[in-house]
Write a structure and sequence with these properties.
The chain is mainly β. It has one domain: TolB, C-terminal domain (Neuraminidase, 6 Propeller), CATH 2.120.10.30. Helices cover 2% and strands 34% of the residues. A hairpin with a 5-residue loop joins strand 16 and strand 17. The longest helix has 4 residues. The chain starts with a helix and ends with a strand. About 22% of the residues have low confidence.
Length: 366
């Protein structure tokens, strides 16, 4: 959640959080994990380099120690399987051309029908290309921040009235909920919540999209991490989660992977090429995972949007470049890159002067 990057304090109410063993899940058992073992009280997971998508930690980047269970893997030149079950590209439609120099960003427009005088954040467009998830601290919620969704009739059309996710999806709580993403079939969710007192990544499974998720569990390989984890972004194939971790007051971008759908994710690795001694957060990747758009703190206080390319889904990113078309003298953050029916658009948040605090924005990718 870029609000953390911006220094906004999110309250964590006092309550008894659900534990992984308490969480009700599809089939009556906690979401499974693969290849995990416990040693010295730490959960460790063996993850092949071809699954991690991180390359090696970039020289000079922070958070490279392994005391928190983080591993680092060597880069490979292989590619991942083509996305089939997730992401926002409709099957059969031509993908957007997001190769270096082939795209630009159009004019940003505030999503006025969803913005309020309160905070709106964490936009995510679901695989139908019509449903936008976001978080807000508007009155009437269950916690400090809740998740909401709104539906539009088509690409570029206005969104309808926002609704709480509680009845449809079920993860709002008296704690705070931040960014959430679903797999393309809608049967799995990964989201950030302060269920356990500080923001961590949680996962839920359900048997049918006609029912809310019955329960949630911490991502097993990350549950003992000492730092805050935010901003989960599911890759289009559903096999990776890119996210931000705060360690020692600084955010860096990590990735965790799994071998197949339906099982838990493995140990986290730093994403090479994007992290610096400044804070980076809010990762969003294209369906082929060759383009990442993210937020970086610059000049000590201001937050700007950046983009970075790499040759394949397992390579190291080239030096990131600022998105000059969108950056202002204010904070611009929390990007979400959506590819729908061969069209691309970028959702993000900003406190720029024409808005009312943190608001949702949309810009076409040209």
């Amino acid at each position: 959640m870029a609000l953390g990057l911006a220094g906004c304090v999110l309250a964590s109410p006092d309550f008894d959080p659900p534990t992984e063993s308490d969480a009700a899940t599809v089939g009556g058992s906690a979401p499974g994990s693969a290849g995990e073992s416990e040693s010295g009280g730490m959960t460790t997971t063996t993850t092949s380099a071809s699954d991690s998508g991180s390359g090696t930690a970039s020289e000079g980047s922070s958070g490279t120690t392994t005391s928190s269970g983080t591993t680092t893997v060597e880069p490979t030149t292989g590619t991942t399987e083509e996305p089939t079950t997730s992401g926002t590209t409709t099957e059969g439609d031509a993908a957007c051309d997001l190769s270096p120099g082939a795209w630009s960003v159009g004019e940003a427009v505030a999503i006025g029908e969803l913005n309020t005088e309160h905070t709106e954040a964490d936009p995510v467009l679901l695989s139908d290309g019509l449903t936008l998830l976001f978080s807000s601290n508007r009155p009437g919620g269950l916690g400090s921040f809740d998740s909401y969704y709104a539906v539009r009739s088509g690409f570029g059309e206005p969104f309808g009235p926002p609704l709480s996710v509680e009845a449809e999806y079920g993860w709002n709580h008296s704690s705070g909920e931040a960014k959430a993403e679903l797999t393309g079939d809608g049967l799995e969710v990964v989201f950030s919540s302060s269920y356990s007192g500080e923001y961590k990544l949680w996962r839920g499974l359900r048997a049918s999209v006609d029912e809310p998720f019955p329960g949630f569990a911490l991502l097993a390989a990350l549950q003992r991490d000492p730092g805050t984890t935010l901003d989960p972004h599911l890759s289009a194939d559903g096999l990776r989660v890119y996210f931000a971790r705060q360690m020692g007051g600084q955010y860096d971008i990590y990735v965790t992977a799994r071998p197949q759908l339906g099982v838990d994710f493995g140990a986290a690795t730093l994403v090479a090429g994007v992290n610096t001694n400044m804070s980076e957060a809010n990762p969003s990747v294209s369906d082929d995972q060759r383009l990442m758009i993210f937020a970086r703190r610059v000049g000590g206080e201001q937050i700007d949007l950046f983009s970075a390319h790499r040759p394949d889904a397992n390579g190291i990113f080239d030096p990131p470049q600022p998105l000059a078309e969108l950056n202002t003298g204010f904070d611009d953050a929390e990007p979400y890159l959506a590819e729908v029916d061969g069209k691309c658009e970028l959702f993000f948040v900003s406190d720029r002067v024409d808005g009312t605090g943190w608001d949702l924005y949309r810009a076409p990718i040209l």
